[in-house]
Amino acid sequence: MPDRLRRPTMNDVARTAGVSLKSVSRVVNDEVGASQETRERVLAAAQALGYRRNDAARALRRSDGRSASIGLVLEDIGNPFASALNRAVEQVASAQGSLVLAVSTNADPDREEQLVYRLLARAVDALLIMSCRRDHRFLQPELDRGVPMVFVDRPPRRLAASTVRVANSKGAHDATAHLIAHGHHRIAFLGDRPSLYTADERTRGYLRALREAGLPADPAVQWRGQADQQHGALAMSALLDLADPPTAVFAGNNLITIGVLATLRRRGLHRQVAVVGFDDLDLAEVMDPPLTVIEQDPGAIGRLATEQVFSRLAGSPSTVKDIVVPTRLVPRGSGEIPGPYQALSLR
Amino acid sequence: MPDRLRRPTMNDVARTAGVSLKSVSRVVNDEVGASQETRERVLAAAQALGYRRNDAARALRRSDGRSASIGLVLEDIGNPFASALNRAVEQVASAQGSLVLAVSTNADPDREEQLVYRLLARAVDALLIMSCRRDHRFLQPELDRGVPMVFVDRPPRRLAASTVRVANSKGAHDATAHLIAHGHHRIAFLGDRPSLYTADERTRGYLRALREAGLPADPAVQWRGQADQQHGALAMSALLDLADPPTAVFAGNNLITIGVLATLRRRGLHRQVAVVGFDDLDLAEVMDPPLTVIEQDPGAIGRLATEQVFSRLAGSPSTVKDIVVPTRLVPRGSGEIPGPYQALSLR
DNA sequence: CTGAAAGCGCTTACAG
DNA sequence: CTGAAAGCGCTTACAG
Q1: Which CATH architecture has domain B168-296+329-346?
Q2: Which helix (H) or strand (E) holds B92?
Q3: What is the C-alpha to C-alpha distance for residues A51 and A171, in angstroms, rounded to an integer?
Q4: Which of A67, A101, A122, B139 is a good FRET partner for A279, with 20 to 30 A between their CA atoms?
Q5: Residue-wise pLDDT tens for chain A (347 aa)?
Q6: Does A263 contact chain B (CB < 8 Å)?
Q7: Distances (CA, A) of B196 to B6, B134, B135, B172, B261
Q8: Smallest CA–CA separation between B286 and chain A, in Å?
Q9: Does domain A168-297+329-346 have CATH number 3.20.20.120?
């Protein structure tokens, strides 16, 4: 009789059913080679005891050692982009019978390394990483060992592993060119902190669009820093205090966009200063004016990355891929506020 | 020599270091009783081989059987409320050295049961559940077995387990009374589908506020259904098409609020019809008019629930608690649009 | 301080 | 079709 506080095991079921441990294993795992009678007795005993297979023990013994779980490393689970990605990852993994262990690094590179090791110690079958690190060589041994690994949103550095990301530079270029086309020459850029891949790429796209239009890139209207609402709002405030303030803004991140909009609204400039934000927001359509954005598809990123991981687990060969998901300019109003050079631009 | 594709084990480290398995275990777990020399040799070998302890195997053998992971069951990881909660849970768990397995039920009760069993099969140490089920008796055996379990946002039914939730009825009452105080008598309510605990409670609060003010509760301006932007928008549209449309709206859920605002804006009524939403939104302050909300604190819910679970795991006695986190009315503009009876109300 | 043996709950490999 | 034995990577309980 199993202890009331202990979870029943296969052995308990075997004893109750009057069969061997192995017969229970056969029935529980739907293997061939168990008579109808054995099957029924085992299922009855399992039912009576409330037996559930211990998957951790199973994973330990199985030849492939699969744990039916994958690790997802994010910078902040609470961020809308990250949570949309998390959702897509979980849906695909769940359909494959896997669970997702998601962690937040809080943008701390050391914490990221620790969390990765903790996930690996839990024997996750694969790793999806939105990394804030500048060096990923510490993952080389795991890669060599064949652990499927896909970097999401930002590619690895000093490590040859697959990536799924969006067309950051192209998207930023589109945003900036759009503002130029609407008559703006002095366009501010507010982006995430330097050395962050996505932010660097978006800066590149912004600068390229200016260059192509023959416009100067004034460092005075470029800000890079902590990507949250408060810092975005303060930075926007400082830009508006310039002797020669920008007439348009390209906000390089969803939280920065919120900060920018808050400042513009507080100063009553939301209908004068044009804004394009990178990444969509729930309420974008309902803003005044409705917010023009470069839409990314976090669901697609999560889905593609997770599918790649499971195709590797299913046996497809290991190749380093760099999948780029396109972005889309969604004009809604804020990005079409005319600038001082509109006549010339539309000529 | 361990296989290059196999993860090194304690045995591999022992062989390399020329000590016994148990000595490696002592060093790896920082137990007392290992000489300085043994310690150094083991650490050197572990370093050389890239050894990492297998926590799943460890949990299997340990007397307390702890897996250092907890399960979090949500309806939709991607929902802003859920992802804020998820984040708080993960932060507390991480500080306790635990990982979080988060799953989405997609509001499917059967899927919820399956996912709970999968989490239990993974030997999670505790369970946090935002449930869409109407009956939780299936969890009684686990509760008896001593698995710490806290229901978040919605209490369990037919099961005596702890809950952390917000003051739904009180919050809804505050919202409705606020609109009445600003001169509205015909106030619509749009809430999540019937039989969902939070939505039922919010309906109660809404009705109580009307009753207290001596106002009729017209079913024609009450809608309950799928809580997403699209359904919210359609429902709002239908309400506005009434011969006697409402002058104010209490939206009982964040996604419904977005739908309501979209419809009002499309019809150009966003400055005429007053709106209070349950649950805050990122861009609420930047709306036109800024959105008045009943703010809930998903971070506090997640934190309190997770802390309770870890205090149980640390040995504190099992008591069924019902923790209610207060809501807060945040007036920003949309809820203060005056109604036709304002003079009377403010008299 | 050190290590050989047993065993956590399961699967593998094999014999009947 | 059925089951006894070995072993996954680790900790426990114990002897030296």
Answers
A1: 3-Layer(aba) Sandwich (3.40)
A2: helix B80-95
A3: 53
A4: A101
A5: 445 577 889 999 999 999 999 999 999 998 888 889 999 999 999 999 989 898 888 988 886 778 889 999 999 999 889 999 999 999 999 999 899 999 999 999 999 999 999 999 888 999 999 999 999 999 998 898 889 999 999 999 999 999 999 999 999 999 999 999 999 999 999 999 998 899 999 999 999 999 999 999 999 999 999 999 999 999 999 999 999 999 999 999 999 999 999 999 999 999 999 999 999 998 899 998 999 999 999 999 999 999 999 999 988 888 999 999 999 999 999 999 999 997 654 54
A6: no
A7: 49, 8, 12, 15, 23
A8: 5
A9: no
Question: Phi and psi at residue B240, in whole multiples of 5°?
Answer: -70, -20
A86·B102 Cβ contact <8 A: yes
Handedness of CA B113, B119, A125, B100 (dihedral sign): positive
pTM of the model: 0.90
Strand partners, A248: A187, A274
Cα of first residue to Cα of last residue in chain B, in angstroms, is 88
What confidence tens digit (pLDDT) does each residue in B202-222 have? 999 999 999 999 999 999 999
Q: How far is the CA of B31 from the C1' of D7 (A)?
A: 26
Q: Nearest C-alpha of chain A: how many angstroms from B81?
A: 9
The Cα angle at residue B99 between residues A8 and B325, in degrees rounded to 5: 100
* C1’ C5 / CA B61, Å: 15
- CATH architecture type of domain A10-53: Orthogonal Bundle (1.10)
Cβ(B204)–Cβ(B194) below 8 Å:
no
Extents of the domains making up chain A: 10-53, 69-166+299-326, 168-297+329-346
Q: Which CATH number fits domain A69-166+299-326: 1.10.10.10, 3.40.50.2300, 3.20.20.80, 1.10.569.10?
A: 3.40.50.2300
Count CB-CB contacts under 10 A for residue A110. Answer: 9
Q: How far apart are CA A247 and CA A338, in angstroms?
A: 9
Cβ within 8 Å of B, A 84-103: 84, 86-87, 90-91, 94, 99-103
In this structure, the number of other CB atoms found within 10 A of the CB of residue A113 comes to 17
- Whether A145 sits inside 8 A of B4 (CB atoms) is yes
Q: Rounded to an integer, what distance in angstroms lies between the CA atom of residue B90 and that of residue A83?
A: 13
The three-point CA angle B115-B118-B119 to 5° equals 90
Residues facing residue B292 across a β-bridge: B276
Question: 3-state SS of B221-238?
Answer: HEEEECCCHHHHHHHHHH
Q: Where does A267-318 have alpha helices with state H? A: 298-313
A258 touches B at CB < 8 Å? yes
What are the structure tokens assigned to A180, written together?
């130029």
Q: Which of the four pLDDT bands, split at 50, 70 and 90, describes residue B183?
A: very high
Same CATH topology for A10-53 and A69-166+299-326?
no
Is-contact A149 A143, C-beta < 8 A? yes
Task: Give the model's pLDDT for residue A94.
Answer: 93
